[in-house]
Amino acid sequence: MKFNKLTPQEASVIINKATEYPFTGEYVNTKDTGTYICRQCNVPLYNSSDKFDSHCGWPSFDDEIKGAVKRIPDADGRRTEIVCANCGGHLGHVFVGEGFTPKNTRHCVNSISMKFIPKTNIKMEKAYFASGCFWGTEYHFMKKAGVVETTVGYMGGHTLSPTYKEVCTGTTGHIETTEVVYDPSKVSFEDLVKLYYETHNFEQVGGQGPDIGPQYQSVVFYVSEAQKHLMEKYIKILQEKGYKPATLLKPAPEFWAAEDYHQEYYDKKNGSPYCHIYRKIF
After folding, report:
1. Is residue 108 annotated as a catalytic residue, yes or no?
2. How much is the pLDDT for 1?
């Protein structure tokens, strides 16, 4: 199991079970909404809703995320140590019967043992790009900063729940497509469109590189009029640059996820696309 690299100060607490000085930790007074995760392995430990002010000098919680924290009798025979159940990293100690909250429990945790992940109210957005074999299309989008998730699948056909074998016949009307879920506060649809055009031959009709067939056509399935208008803008920009884009624009129908072995294909194979080579255009 691979863990995060620790600084000497972090290791002294998480590995060697030292204790921060009271009232010096980063999260002693934090009241923001979010989740506290293990600094060594990133597993969620505590929800902010269970944090309370005990005035003890360390972050205090009256409950943990189920199964996240393990209790161990301390070497001094008097206290109970708490560690991350996943990696064994030292968190602090747990005390009961103090009456601070109705749960009557206090997890006294070193700030340095945790990282705080604030809750975001930003709604994720989706885009659907087809540019030939979906293995190569996904390869570039899944590495783009701000992209939360990618899934390859099929869109635009006239049959339900198509299989890869059926789509490859060219008779179902489906096109190999990559669904991109992205954080609009970190990456824009326009940024994704630029990457889309810079990673495939958008002038080719009826295929992409050696992959020939209607399922490999350059297509963007737009989910809003705003996406459609931006695509029209970039098709015009490309035309003004002397290109002849063959990209089709279609309203997004139902997306059918492809079989598991197609997902993140090149990463699983430790390879790279043969017909989706990046080239700077914009």
Report:
1. yes
2. 65
